[in-house]
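Re: Re: token formats

Sure, here are both.
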Amino acid sequence: MADSAATSLTVGWIGTGRMGRPLAERLARAGVPLAVWNRTRGKAEALTRTGAELVDDPSDLAGRDVVFTMVTGSAELESVVSRLFAGPGRVPKILVDCSTVSAAASGRVRAAAGDRGTAFLAAPVSGNGKVAKAGLLSIVVSGPRDAFEAVEHLIAMLGRHVSYVGEGELARLAKICHNLLLGVVAQNLAEITVLAEKAGMPRAGFLDFINNSVMGSMFTRYKSPALVHLDFTPTFTPVLLQKDFDLGLAAARELEVPMPVSAAAREQVQSAVARGRTDEDFAVLLELQAANSGLVLKPESGPVDDGLGYQDPAAERS
């Protein structure tokens, strides 16, 4: 049964790739009146089975109350927003961007939206495509408080938790801080896992212990299959992680915040990039740590619980 609050606003969605499609689907399944545009139309067509309408151009979404964007980068965001605002007629009341883009690009989009009378919310997410499908993303939001309160119920449908951190581009810095912690934890997880294995423990057994201890987390659990099976199919590459380390450490220098642990972890990510491990998942840090420790890793077989399970927003609200 659709939630009446969910259906009181008409919504547009731009970008139905690996992250955008499961998020748009969650809104559609919850009964939100949804229209969708994607650069490659075929990648959006499956959403019609959940009640979404497909449109031919971002400008076709301009009459919607709220428009969400989930695109691949800064240039793509600025391009689709310029097309959204291309016409002389109505514009959305609120624009919500869930992409990972630079603060500078976000600021330019905020200014362009403001010129047309549209409130802009930066709302980057934490998690990969599998986490998005499971409904377990965390979302951090910055922008006008009244705009956030108007669409908080919609943003909440996208994941497990929403945090509002203030005005302007603060959510962009929050996401960079998040990724600094991601890199530090990934490197430390690689180190302790190699230590355990070199002592004679199987990776699966050691990670099962960590995941079910006070030190386990959603991240350590859903990364465990990659570490156990040595499956480095990319969800987030060392190149992207290095970029975020550089942005975060630049912000730390500007704000005069010493970050010695983050700086050390950044060098390990740089090592992965220098060795050509650029198109794999950042979990390759495990193999680099093993090589530095004189250990040759082999894939371990068997199922590993990643802690994820798909959650249907319509079922949750029925």
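Second one below.
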Amino acid sequence: MILTAILLATLAAGIGSVWLAALLSFGLLARYTQHMLSMAAGALLATSFMLLLPEAFESEVSPQRLFTTVLLSLVFFFLLDKAELWHHGHEHGKSAHDEPGAHGGKGEEGGGLHGHHHAPHHGHSHGHDHGKDLRSGGWAVLAGDSLHCFADGVLIASAFMADMRLGVLAALAVLMHEVPHHMGDLTVVRASSDNRRAALIKVSMAGSVTALGGLVGYFLVEQLREQLPYFLVVAASSFMYVALADLIPQLQKRLSMRQTGAQLFWLGLGLGLVSLATQIAHSGHGH
């Protein structure tokens, strides 16, 4: 009975939150696609710094070990990104060199660094480099999301093992705080594949790992409870890396005051939604 309840609750929280996020991202907010990158960056940073890291540091694991895990995780994702860059550049090196204006013609060559920076900004940067950034970002987001969802599943299982009502509240809390976070995930993963259905399937598969965490947590809850802080820290590191290395640099463009204000608004909206959902979730299950 408890195992069935755990599986149903984790599936509802893990996959249901993805579908709700898709309804918002691809439906109600579809017209704001250009602003969703800003919101994704805010949601990922808020999830890392206001949810995962505080949860991990409330454990009995020493801060030094957790910070070391953060550092090693960031280096790992950096190396993963470099490997993707090398592979992508090796495959497309000829076409990149043969692009008109890749090395600058008469009108671009004379500009030196200034000319090279602005001309590729609209061509090369938004074609080859833009695809690179979000392609590697999609990888890191799915990896971090899977770990995050696994940890959520273990937490839900732990709550059900303590009390059935507490388990239901924990599942609802996970569902609430995952919706704004998955909106950011869908934005990044969709940009890496340029396909809504593929992005929804990939993020749903990551969300389904919540059920795996619940199943494993049911049998090994005591043993896994000690490892949860490390799962949370690695997940937080992946979200931090994607936000700071992939998304934020793409937003660092010279824009008008109005466009900059819109960026800040959507960035703040991502931060605020995750923060609000986290506070409601924590008050809901007595965290």
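The two ends are 25 Å apart (CA to CA). Confidence is low (pLDDT under 50) at residues 87-92, 94-135.
- S.
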